[in-house]
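Hello K.,

You asked for the raw outputs rather than the summary table, so here they are, unedited. I folded two proteins back to back in the same session to keep the settings identical. This is the first:
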Amino acid sequence: MTTHLVHLQFVAGGPAVTGEWADGATARRTWRDWVGLYGSDEKVVIQLAEGADGGERLLMAWERGHAVAASSGGPAATEGSALSGWWRPLQMAYDGTELRHLAS
């Protein structure tokens, strides 16, 4: 069964607050809400992932004050795996109520 996870770290590599849902829409909404609440701090890392078969596949992340996404077709991220080189920047804007993707 696929689960949808949101991880919040106030410092990269630090302890995480994690939520887990069966419904992906709830997890995406929580990720967006946590970005609105905590994303202005440059040290905060907020990740949205799908979990299955003991591993996680990173879908979206908020790092250093902006949104980044996992590249398509990349390997599933497992606990302790290195994610360097896995990111591509996204142009996102948060107006206090909604996180929007900005067209390039």
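The second followed immediately with the same parameters:
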Amino acid sequence: MRVHLVVAHPEVLSFNCALHEVAKHTLTELDITYSESNLYVDQFEAIAGPADVAGYEGTQESFSLAKAQRYAIANDAFTEQITTEQRKLSECNLLILQFPLWWWSFPAILKGWIDRVLTSGFAYGQSAKLEPKKVMYSITTGGASDQDEIDYYQTKIDGLYQDIFGFMGWEIIPPFIAHGVQQQGYQARQLILRDYSAYLKTVLDKRKLVDD
């Protein structure tokens, strides 16, 4: 069993990074091997384009990202940053994405990771090399004032799952959502962190991921 953790928050002292640390500690406690990518610390380039693929310029009149990505797969021509991330994905059974929900979506750097790493010919498309994995989101939000707003958040998050990982045929694990952490006091935040650890243990045990 191996888990890959991706965290996308610019502040290392943020609650998102605290949740990321809880995930690492919990996996270590369960004796589960993991890899990680801290996109801001790693200065991950968020913009997909011709620079992702060595030797592709000049092969056609106009640039096509999907065609360039398939060219890179066939010719081992991705940049080292993409190759490294794809290797981590290939080696894991479960992917956990840790991020704040900004404007009902991913932070730009995480969307860039999706664009540049989950490439045509690797993660999706005919003869894609990457086998479907399991995926889970751990998300913070600005807060929900009532059940209707909580349901609205859930609908948006379900869409973020289905439009990407559902399309690729991955097994989707229900998310851990921490609403309104900026308005919470220290004790409440500590309880959320403990709840996250307990949730991870439940997910891993329920799906028998520990023994895989």
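The CA atoms of residues 134 and 171 lie 5 Å apart.

Happy to rerun anything if the numbers look odd on your end.

Regards,
P.
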